[in-house]
Amino acid sequence: MDEGYGIETKAVRAGQTRPLLEGAVVAPVFQSATYESGDETSYHGIRYLRLNNSPNHLALAGKLAALENAESAVVAASGMAAIATALFTVLGSGGHVLAHRTLYGGTHDLLTKEFASHGLSFDLMDADDPGSWSAKLRPTTRAAYVETITNPLLEVCDLEAVVRFARENELVAMVDNTFASPVNFRPAEHGFDLSLHSGTKYLNGHSDIVAGAVIGRADLVEQVTHRLNHLGGTLDPHACFLLDRGLKTLVLRVRQHNASALALARFLEAHPAVALVHYPGLTGHPQHTRATRLLAGFGGMLSFELHGGLASARQFLQSVELAIVAPSLGSVETLVTRPAATAHLGLSRSQRAASGVTDGLVRVSVGIEALDDLLDDFGQALDRVS
Ligand SMILES: *Cc1c(COP(=O)(O)O)cnc(C)c1O
After folding, report:
1. Model-wide pTM > 0.85
2. How far is the CA of 113 from the centre of ligand 1 (A)?
């Protein structure tokens, strides 16, 4: 597809094969586990569903690469399948990764609970403090790993310095771009080698599938695909179809998430019951200037603390009516959660404290409902907080 097309056009059309199959405007689900043999020269070229090469997989990979202006992409059975496979591939045997100290809970668990038994190691770093990184380098360090916007405190770390540091030290620069989505940040344009996604979130956007993606340098994506073929974490073709359908409205959805989250963040900031709001679009956010420079929008995620701490947070969650109290994020409906009780439950209280996740912190995934309805709902719930 023409690289000059706008991102809105790519979201709708990239990856589509021409001529259209039987003239169908929407490609069908290829519900076939295996395909007629041709003249395959390698194992990975055999057309078999686990090998991630069905027409649904290839269309989706083409669209994802186009959306991030990257060379290549592969989809996986979940975000964690994508992240784990990418890390295992890049780190090889005995590798070490330098990762930001606040990570998505599942990624943190992967490093702390799985790595050692596979002979892999990690160090946590402050991705906002470049001066502290070289002391943590080891001869086996192979990658630097960060998240575009961190969970749940919405930090925007020094991503440009991370890329420079990776170049200087021959590391693979990896970023979990789930929170930003390709609409707000395209890692390849900033020099990242690999971008990871939970497709469960904004990419699909409808809370009805679990999926993942690895997007970036073609040589690395090929290695990741081969590893994924061996490990077996392929995405079902019907889930591929749903993810492709969700992607068609990605740009429209994310623009609405950006606008509503900014308005809700400002509303919360001005409310007397609220002690602190974390949102990179607020001028008081510690990395607001950088976020403005790097991101096309500040995203749909925010978190806040109430003056009344944990008791008030519980009261707030019991009082919302439109917003749904549920983990996960990035979908059309507004979800609220207490990270200490969900995503960060795997961490000890001291680990949570170190990453700033207080027991009373409330995280919001702002959906695309009418903004006035959301403000009314948050307003009435805050009024009931003591
Ligand atoms: C949800 C999430 C993941 C994991 O994705 P799954 O699809 O649940 O496996 C990874 N990173 C971030 C930032 C996430 O929000």
Report:
1. yes
2. 17
